[in-house]
Amino acid sequence: MRRTAQGFTLIELIIVITIIGILAAVALPRFINAQQDARIAKAQALFGSVRSAAALARSRCELDLAGGAAVGATCTTTAGTANMDGTAITMVNRYPAATAAGIIAATQIDTTNDGVTVAVGPPLTITINGATTAANCRISYTAATAVLAPVITLDTSGC
């Protein structure tokens, strides 16, 4: 009885390996860009959250100043606290301070679970973990002054 050989020939194996290599070369850059796009989207979402939290805290402070102070709120035109969802937010010039008890508490950022690192400045910076250039993948928050609203900037050039 004669047995026939089973399996791939050397040429078939070389062709399959070449095709896999070409597919990997095409797919890998797209995968890397997907990670970059995800970090940019996270930075943009956090930027929106910081802007919204600052505006909401300002509104709460204005309500306090108008006589509708929440329990425990002491917001004044220059300092104090505003109560947002049961959390005392440290305020400076009617906006959240650039501290953990200020804008970070107002946005409810969790550095452990949100994949970010917070550095209290000035300015306070929220850096996206895993960025190519961490210094260029961040949100910066500079506290309000007596004449200017807080300055909130977004840099995604290094994400």
TrEMBL record:
Q: Localized where? A: Membrane
- Keyword terms, alphabetized: Membrane, Methylation, Transmembrane, Transmembrane helix
- Pfam families assigned: N_methyl
Task: Please verify whether the record's keywords include ATP-binding.
Answer: no
This protein's record includes keyword Lyase: no
Which SUPFAM superfamilies is this protein grouped with?
A: Pili subunits
Question: Listed GO cellular component terms?
Answer: membrane
Where are the bilayer-spanning segments? 7-28
**What is the membrane topology listed in the Swiss-Prot or TrEMBL record?**
Single-pass membrane protein
What broad class describes the main subcellular location of this protein?
Answer: membrane
Task: List the NCBIfam families hit by this protein, alphabetically.
Answer: IV_pilin_GFxxxE (TIGR02532)
Please state what the protein is called: Prepilin-type N-terminal cleavage/methylation domain-containing protein
